[in-house]
Every structure is written in C-alpha cells, then in structure tokens.
Amino acid sequence: MKKVVTKRHILLQLRRVHYMNLYKFLDRVLGSLQYRSFVVWFYLQNLGKLWIPYLETHLCDHCNLNCKSCSHFCPLVTEPTFTDLEQYTRDIRTLSKKLAIRTIRLMGGEPLLHPQVNDFMRVTREAYPHSRIFIVTNGLLLLKMPNDFWETLRQYHIRIHWSKYPPLRDKFAEIYKHLKKHRALLEFGEMSNEDIECFHSFSPFSPNGTEDPKQAFKGCMSKGCVNLYRGKLYTCPACYVFRANEYFHANHEVPEGWDIYKYSGKELQSFLNKPIPFCRYCHHGVHPKSFPWEVSKRKAEEWM
Ligand code: SF4
Ligand code: SF4
Fold first, then answer.
1. Confidence class for position 288, pLDDT limits 50, 70, 90
2. pLDDT at position 29, please?
3. Cα separations in angstroms, 14 against 2, 5, 18, 32, 94
4. What CA–CA distance (Å, rounded) separates 154 from 60?
5. Which residue among 8, 30, 83, 202 has the highest number of C-beta atoms inside a 10 angstrom radius?
6. Looking at ligand 1, which atom is closest to the CA of residue 165?
7. What average pLDDT does the segment 103-129 reach?
C-alpha cells in the first residue's frame, strides 16, 4: 500500500533528528553552496591567469595571547614587531600583477594590535578585488575595536576568522552579539567548546633534521599555507623558525623564500610544489598534535 506522507509525519521526523541538527545541517549545505559559487566565480574572473588557492601574511609577529606551540612561533617574539604598511603595499601590489589568490588571510601574531589594520585591509582588497579576504583574530580585542574598523570591514568586504580560545570563554556570547551588531561576516567561529579547549599544532619539529624531506613534504598538512613575509613567499609557516633561532640561540636552517620582485609566477608553481631543505626538520607521517590549550612557557619542547 502506498504510504502517505503528511505534514505531521515530516514534523515528527524533524523532531526526531532535532531541529537544531537540521538547522546546522542546512547551514553547512548552504554555506558550502555559497563557497562553491564563489569558487566558480573566482575561476571565471581569473581565466588564463596563474593563481594559488591560499596566502597568509603577518600584520605583526607578536601576539597578545601566546599559545603554547603556536606554529608561527609568536610567543617567542618578545618585542612588538609590526609589518611596515608601505612595504606591504608594495609587496601585495607586485604580487597581484603576477598571480591571483583565492583566499588571503591577514593574521599574525594578533593583527588587531596593528594601529593601521584598516589600511592593510584596504590595500589588500584594492590589490585583490576577487579574493576572499579574512582577518584572523583570537578575539581578545574585538570588543574594543573602534567604529572605523567595522566600517572598513564592511566597505571592503573582509570576513572575520575568529579562533576561539579558553581565556575568552565567558565573553563568547557578548562577542557574537557585538559582531552581529556591526554586521560583521564571521567564519569558522562556531567551533564546539571541546574544540576550543584543545590546541592543534601542525608543525612538530624534529630537532636533529634527520627526516626524509620528500616523505615529510608528501604527508605535510602545512605545505599549502603559503606565507608572504617581507617581500618573499614561503611554502609554509616554517619560515618563522628564525624566531626560534633568535630566542633559543639555535642555528636551524631558515627556509629560503621566493623573491616576489625577482621571479615570475611560473617559477613559483615549481617552487611551491617541491620539498624545501627545511622539510628534513619535520616529522613525516605524524598527525597534528592535539593537547589542552595553555599559554606558552617558551620552552623549546613545545615545538618538538
Ligand atoms: S592566538 Fe594565534 S598567533 Fe597568537 S599565539 Fe595563539 S596561535 Fe599564535
Ligand atoms: S618545512 Fe616542509 S614538511 Fe615542514 S611544514 Fe614546511 S612544507 Fe611541510
């Protein structure tokens, strides 16, 4: 006999899977549709151009949170170290003439510490009108940002990536309300509380540099995290290991960057697709370490 599906049946089914789960499911599906439409649009806008999927860059190297094992070595930067706006403007404009970028993340360190954060957002958008641009923050300063910060976000269509950590646990609701009030586009801030309690470190280093670089590169989860730092592009955040060298008086080989003023976009493709000498310091086949979040004690073991 044919089964008749009534409105009541549907409501009962919805109740069984809980409305909230359904809401989250739809949110995920619609979010992914929106992202896919963006990807198609990005390809059409950049037909025939060289492009990379992802780039991140520091607005400052220091941080106001200093998480244990930070993969950008920010806890080891003990003096305020800001990126120079003029140099960054030259860099990002030069880069935009050589290649398109799908996603750009302005980060640090904590980028909201930079007094010219609005200008960084503006020049990035002007150089890359078709990219998804994020400002990545730990959120500590979100409630204190002046109105012109929120206006700049809206004007240049910059999204916020809020990495939630335990010290702000009591402020989550207030921050969400604040973001909503300022009509900020938020992504990735909805992690569950269990995720927040854990820190995931993607770069456990082998201190003796005895790993096979090819194998390490093959299994590496950070190799797509291209970093722009002071006129050069790097395969991954290992470029900031010079901070560990400074702090621990060590002598690890610092990765060589790709000079954006010297080389063409074509040469970049091959540069990014092969291991760098520093890969021998990365454990291969090791999954990211997860451990309870805590403030760094600035011990070398945190990065091993
Ligand atoms: S908030 Fe981010 S940049 Fe700052 S120390 Fe933690 S992981 Fe590093
Ligand atoms: S140095 Fe090589 S293996 Fe290590 S994080 Fe960078 S790309 Fe990956």
1. low
2. 62
3. 22, 13, 6, 22, 53
4. 22
5. 83
6. 1
7. 97
**Residue 10, CB half-sphere, CA atoms under 13 Å: how many?**
5
Q: Which numeric CATH code is attached to 51-302? A: 3.20.20
Q: Tell me: the pLDDT tens digits for 151-166?
A: 999 999 999 999 889 9
* Domain locations in the chain as residue ranges: 1-49, 51-302
Atom of ligand 2 nearest to the CA of 216: 3
Q: According to the model, what pLDDT value does residue 286 have?
A: 64
Whether the pLDDT of residue 192 is over 60: the answer is: no
Closest ligand to 137 CA?
1
Determine whether 264 is exposed, middle or buried from the number of CB atoms within 10 Å of its CB (0-12, 13-18, 19+).
Answer: exposed
Residue among 212, 236, 254 whose CB has most ligand 2 atoms within 8 A, to mutate? 236
Dist CA 40 CA 103 (whole Å):
14
- Looking at residues 228-234, what average pLDDT do you find? 96
Residues 65 and 167 sit within 8 Å (Cβ to Cβ):
yes
